[in-house]
Amino acid sequence: MTGYDADVVVVGFGGAGAAAALSAAEHGVEVLVVDRDTRGGNTALSGGSLRLRPDVERAARYLSTLSLDRKAAAVHRSMLDGCRDLGGWLVRLGAEIEEMNDAFVTNTLPRVLASPYPTIAGSEALGPRFRVRGRDGQSGGDAVWELLRDAVLRHPRITVRTPAVAVELVRAGQGRVDGVRLREADGVHGVRARHGVVLACGGFEYDRRLQQNYLGFSLPAFGWPGGNDGSGVRLAQGVGAALWHMTSIASVLGYQLPGLEAAVRHSMPDLGYVYVDQECARFVDETGVDFHAIPMDLLRMNPRTFRRDRMPSFLVFDEATRAAGPIADTYLTPYRDEFRWSRDNRAEIERGWIAAADTPRELASTLGLDPDALAATVERYNAGAAAGADPLGRAAADMRPLRGPFYGVALWPCLINTQGGPRRDATCRILDPGGEPIPGLYGAGELGSMWTQLYPGAGNLTEAIVTGRTAGAAAAAALAPPAGPAPATGTVTPAVTDALAAFVADLRAGDLPETALRAARRCVLDQLGCAVFGSTLPWSALVRDYVRDEGSAPRALVWGSGLRASATLAALANATAGHAFEIDDLHAGACFHPGR
Ligand SMILES: Cc1cc2nc3c(=O)[nH]c(=O)nc-3n(C[C@H](O)[C@H](O)[C@H](O)COP(=O)(O)OP(=O)(O)OC[C@H]3O[C@@H](n4cnc5c(N)ncnc54)[C@H](O)[C@@H]3O)c2cc1C
């Protein structure tokens, strides 16, 4: 490996980075993982829920409706296939896996619905949620993280280097990404990657400028302050990557509290509560809408005032609910080792985080709201609760008149994670704006996620590990390892493919004898004729539809149609058409297909 620091360099040591490193190492290459710290990113703070048993065909249709992104169909499919393989892989790493029971859905407020977007058919095809049981009884993302981290740390072919912040990608000849510049304690150093670099360094939960540019606002986040700062987006842009899904986020409600940079998650112990906007009006069925979907109602812009006047909104709850349990989940935050929310919310009232008052009017004054408006809203809600009827559709069984004293706190849509980043294909190669892979560059995890506006839950962590595995394997295979056993006779390795491609790329017509040129011309003509006929066959039409759906830059002609696509996609369609009715593979003497 002279001149190289590793075969594969992985930027980011969260779930995606750990999975990428393990997968690359499983393919026999040397891996270097770099991160600014060792806390495990969003992965370690997550709820830890995973999808391991989707019904692939139906789930693919569901995802295509959910995402509204037809370019992502192949990416969805690859992720769903990867889900089915994921449980077995985690078990081989030593995981104990359990299905999350129904109590998770029924006992959580706001609710985690089995079908977050009930008007879109097919959500059940994603299958149940699963989680990893931790050694010390944890069952959140910390259990997943510890499993992956420990497997990485004990792997003989993986080296972890921290603290090391990736500041720039380095390109070699022909534009191949072959290294990263790292900022470390003693200065900036370059590390070189023989096969390629995997970007697995999370989203832009802590980059307000990127959020303002793409979302139109910036939000508090649940992740480690200073962790995912959008550097993955900038690194990829620096080498010409296309971006996608930059306006999409996963969000749930939370609190922004004085002295805490990260948000704290909202979670209710009982039913005595409502949400109101800045005019003190209720706006959503607080218990009947999935917790991932409720933030959409807070994010909207008021079409009359052109203000986002539900940011923040306010949680108003009553005495019985205060006494029933904490209104926050401090386990899924960076502060879980520093403090736990008090069981009766008293400590937080004393700290001034929660406003308390005997009447809705007094509460409104403390929160800076209109006292008459809040009093009227509580009165209307209580009358509806007594009658079992709610104009917003809250179920009668979920309503109970609010009784004082009353409590209130500002409520924000908070970032679980952003979804945007460099666009990748089904094998996790990062693409340029023309849809062509940037050689040597791979992406995984929430950076450039496949998820878009409608996030169904338990999707990002699963995607992080699945795409990490895919990216690690693809990077490892980009070139043959320099050492190791010789390939078996007849095996085509990537190194042979590279050598063949380089030979063809360098070849000039003048280098060839006339007889070879004549034979080549006849072969090209033969291939073209076969392809023109082959393009009329149904299986060629399927591939052509796929190429059209991928929507790449119109650079090369797809034979037998007026369609233009990127060179690689056009080559796929044309090669399929050329081989659609050929019988060359049947003649033993003429058999040249590398797969034979
Ligand atoms: C509170 C919370 C709950 C969640 N619950 C769930 C859930 O239950 N199910 C689910 O599917 N998803 C959940 N998610 C989302 C999910 O956890 C993440 O999207 C996923 O884990 C992301 O994994 P990742 O490896 O892509 O990023 P991360 O795990 O965030 O790792 C990225 C790493 O990159 C490092 N890094 C960033 N920039 C650089 C740089 N320039 N140089 C070096 N290192 C860098 C960071 O330090 C970090 O360690 C939750 C997220 C949060 C915050």
From TrEMBL:
GO terms for biological process: steroid metabolic process. One of its GO terms (molecular function) is lyase activity. Keywords: FAD, Flavoprotein, Oxidoreductase. The keyword Flavoprotein applies. InterPro entries: FAD-dep_OxRdtase_2_FAD-bd, FAD-oxidoreductase_2, FAD/NAD-bd_sf, MmgE/PrpD_sf, MmgE/PrpD_sf_1, MmgE_PrpD_N, Succ_DH/fumarate_Rdtase_cat_sf. Residues 7-460 form the FAD-dependent oxidoreductase 2 FAD-binding domain. The keyword Oxidoreductase applies. Coiled coil: none annotated. It comes from the Bacteria. Pfam families: FAD_binding_2, MmgE_PrpD_N. Its cofactor is FAD. It comes from Phytohabitans suffuscus. The lineage of its organism: Bacteria, Bacillati, Actinomycetota, Actinomycetes, Micromonosporales. Residues 499-595 form the MmgE/PrpD N-terminal domain. This is FAD-binding dehydrogenase.
